[in-house]
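For reproducibility, we list the full input for the magnesium ion complex.
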Amino acid sequence: MSYENFKGLSIEDQLEWYKAAIYSIHDGVLVIDSKEIVRLINPEYTRITGVKPKDIIGKPLRVVRPKAQLAETLKDGKERIGVYRKEGNVEYVVDMAPILLHDEMIGAVSICKGLTEVHTLSKELEKNKQKLSQLKEKMGTLYQAKYTFEQIIGTDGGLKDAAYLGKKAASSNLPVLIVGESGTGKELFAQAIHNASPRADRPFIPVNCASIPASLIESELFGYAEGTFTSAKKGGKLGLFEIANSGTIFLDEIGELSYDLQAKLLRVLQENTLRRVGEAGERQIDVRVIAATNRDLHQLIEKKRFREDLYYRLNVLHLEILPLRKRKQDIPDIVDYILNKHAIHSEKEQSYELHESTLAIFQAYDWVGNVRELKNTIDFAVCMTDTNVILPEHLPSNFHSSTIYKSNKQTSYLLKQAVEETERNVIIEVLKKHGSELDDKKKAAKVLGVSLATLYNIMKKYHIGDF
Ligand SMILES: Nc1ncnc2c1ncn2[C@@H]1O[C@H](COP(=O)(O)OP(=O)(O)O)[C@@H](O)[C@H]1O
Ligand SMILES: [Mg+2]
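The corresponding predicted structure, in tokenized form, follows.
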């Protein structure tokens, strides 16, 4: 039997052909005629419901499946989509539709899908949902700000006022501009403000505008649409502003942002919407902006390198942090704070202290790298000292040229010389008194409180011969 020439088939064979088509459908199919008599089911229907053809074909549907709603469809001619049914342990979803021929309703068809597949899919969906929420949580911790105002040490040089203003700023949504040299604690302040704000449990996203290549910064900040670049990711890319949504974005070194992008940033700040690169639509965002710079923005404005309108937009709250050399009173407290941290983290739980000559060097030093340099210096010295005291000699070599260090070194050299000279004189005197025989030396060693071997070593060290 060949089915190649459809039109050449007998009626019976054509019917077989249609039946085969319906049998191949991966959904359960049941067809009734206009008298509600079941005329056809396919194997998938049997698989889902457990009802075999001999038990149902040729019989009234109401009799064999009393709960079936297909008869209603036959009555009102209306489709029914996604009707849930459960018989015994079997759950499935049914779509029902009238069958029309030349405007006459000649029957109705129901298509059912077993829920095992739906359950498997929904389980998979649940798993993915869990994964997503775990990832979200991870992302939250990844982008959390560490520091609070308690961890900002010092009060000198207006730091107290800056902290006061920072705390006030935290409760508002206003933009903040933090100005200060590198290492003065600008990011520390930004984190503290975020953590004291109602956004504390939302992301804190630090962005260093100077470290992202100019060609990438727009798409890094605002994201891009799918297919924007040849290397673009499927589904596009989330920008940092979107990641920071409902949280805070910290735009460090804002003075390095190109003039072009400054205009785009201004738009985002004014409209609270952003447009991904290559996308037409705008997206609503809610991001608190804290910007920082170590540049003189007024000078940049004069040189037309920074937009004045953006400056005023960002500078609603202005925090200035002075360099460490202008607030030296705080050095001892900051040192203690850093040493304490070392004590907590050291295995021996030993507490470290700064020798006063080291503190004197610190007070005289001008700390171009500010608190960051101070911290690094202490970290280095803690590593170098074998005791818990940090002496000038434990400091990095750039401190060795300091005059205080030199005079200190001089004193300790003189002291060493004096000690050695005294030691030599005492030994000569004792040896002279006792004589140079072996027994005499033994006695001398006893008087000096050292072993004979040590006495010989000392004599060798000071080039002392026999008497
Ligand atoms: N007042 C301060 N008290 C304690 N630690 C500080 C203080 N200021 C700065 N630091 C520390 O100094 C380092 C540099 O601070 P950071 O905020 O990164 O500076 P900036 O952003 O201005 O370059 C960080 O380790 C920070 O914790
Ligand atoms: Mg910084």
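The mean pLDDT is 89. Residues 249 and 255 are 16 Å apart (CA to CA). Both points were considered when choosing residues for closer inspection.
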